[in-house]
Amino acid sequence: MTAAGDRRGQGRSSRYRAAPTTTEGLAREAVVLAGAGAAILLQVSHPSVGAGVAQHSDFAADPLKRLRHTLQFVYAAVLPEASAARERVAGWVGAAHGPVRGTDATGRSYSAADPQAQLWVTATLYWAAEQARWRIWGEWPDVVTGGPTGLAVPADPAVPADPADPADPADPADQAVAKAEAVYRDYAVLGTLLGMPADLWPEDRAAFARYWDAAVVNLEVTDDARAICRDLFAAEAAPWWLRRLMPLVRFVSAGMLPVRIRLQLGLDWDGADSRREDALWGVLRAVYPRLPLRWRQLPARLVVRTLRV
Question: N or C: which end of the chain has fewer CB within 10 A?
Answer without folding.
Answer: C
